[in-house]
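Q: Give me the 3D complex with LZUJQKHR.
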Amino acid sequence: MADMRLIVAGAGGRMGRALTRVIAETPGAVLAGALEAPGSELLGKDAGVLAGLPANGVQLSADLWTLSANADGILDFTVPGATIANVAIAAQRGLVHVIGTTGLSASDEAVIKSVTSRAIVVKSGNMSLGVNLLAALVKRVAQSLDESFDIEILEMHHKSKIDAPSGTALMLGEAAAAGRKIALEERSARGRDGFTGARRSGDIGFASLRGGTVVGDHSVIFSGPHERITLAHHAEDRILFAHGALKAALWAHGKKPGFYSMADVLGLGDT
Ligand SMILES: NC(=O)C1=CN([C@@H]2O[C@H](COP(=O)(O)OP(=O)(O)OC[C@H]3O[C@@H](n4cnc5c(N)ncnc54)[C@H](OP(=O)(O)O)[C@@H]3O)[C@@H](O)[C@H]2O)C=CC1
Ligand SMILES: O=C(O)C1=N[C@H](C(=O)O)C[C@H](O)C1
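A: Here is the predicted complex, encoded as structure tokens.
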């Protein structure tokens, strides 16, 4: 099969630059375009140079329709508004759309699902093997423990992160809720402040810390009578997520339209 031609959306961002570097070193993948926000001062700059590599001749553009005329996939780690705009074009062009953007609303999620009868979407709040394994473990532990164990999810990220709780924390919350056979949206406790009253039994709590350059730390705490179990993951470099996104794109190339998760890509199934 010919090399997969990939567009990096948000090419000037932290993940975008990491993705450009990983594409350059991945056999079977080639950078076909670099997308940035309309009005960005980075438009016209060379994607390779921005990523700390030699110039590669791919200049940042805000025109996905034109870029995608000659592409097979788009790696999208941007902001919700941009991802939703990209969804329609990716579907129309038949691209593999790998979505890592977090902070999407329920209606954004519905828009993404609505195109998957004709589009190939791989979406995950975290593209790392470790976090996807952790989610499977969290589901398993939540299945085994009753409501005498309170579930709390703690995450810490760098000071530039703009959404909370993190997409990963919500994914781990979904895993815990699936293990307990409850609906997360009915049982989550977020943003405690002031006179909150006692913790409601069966809730899944979330807490977010921000500071410095932390790439991504997540802990799921099962706090029971006189004992506590903590399952945790620490991301050490965001290149980890970029490798996961590339793996997802190459895996999805040629697949039937549908909505896929990183668990599908990694062969973890519905564990
Ligand atoms: N699923 C996963 O494994 C991971 C997910 N993420 C998620 O990825 C997203 C990006 O993270 P990060 O790279 O740190 O953030 P950055 O802010 O560094 O990068 C986002 C980039 O998207 C650009 N952008 C904004 N609007 C558009 C648009 N309309 N079209 C194209 N590009 C646009 C921004 O440009 P500008 O600055 O000019 O607005 C910026 O360059 C976040 O939601 C984060 O949570 C991050 C790591 C791993
Ligand atoms: O914004 C980030 O940096 C990250 N975002 C993702 C999230 O919201 O969970 C994944 C990772 O933790 C880094």
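A quick observation: The chain has a mean pLDDT of 97.
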